[in-house]
Amino acid sequence: MDRLYKRPEFVDYDEAYSTFAKVRKDINNAITQENKEEIAKNLKDLKLGACQGNPIYMDLLAYYYKNGTWDLIPEDYDKYMQWEILSCARGNTYAIEKFQFLLNNAFEVIMSNENYKTIEYKNDIDENNILYVLGKNICKILAKELELFPIDIIAKKDVLNKYTQDKFIFYRKKIDEIVPKVIEFMLS
Question: Rounded to two decimals, what is the model's pTM?
């Protein structure tokens, strides 16, 4: 009987970073050369990989939606946040480190919880993985709460959707709202 493939819990930081940098360099070279066919092919491959669950490709899509890419991907703050949340929820350690700025308050609330020692024990948290374990779990619950699915994000028409303070506050508040659910999940 064939064994089922089990996705690793976390994507190694060095692997995530080097793959991100290589693919970004390839796409940026195509952009510099104004090779529309190559750019379109690369972006199509990114979207396909992201829909298939590749957290590095999700992080790359977040990167390109953050500021927009040439005339093929407009700046879209919501898609940037959604892809980054999904990448972190899939255990992309590089993405979690980049996203830490938005998660810091949630980290503090979880770590100051009266049951934190139990959370540490049940989730094998130590000083080397605390950022990744907490970040991944926060983003897993956030993705569930926001009903984020790769296929749905891809299906949405690309439109210019710039950053606003209200949008940032929306995501900050959502993170604050889900912290009790994260604590409950990590205690279960």
Answer: 0.92
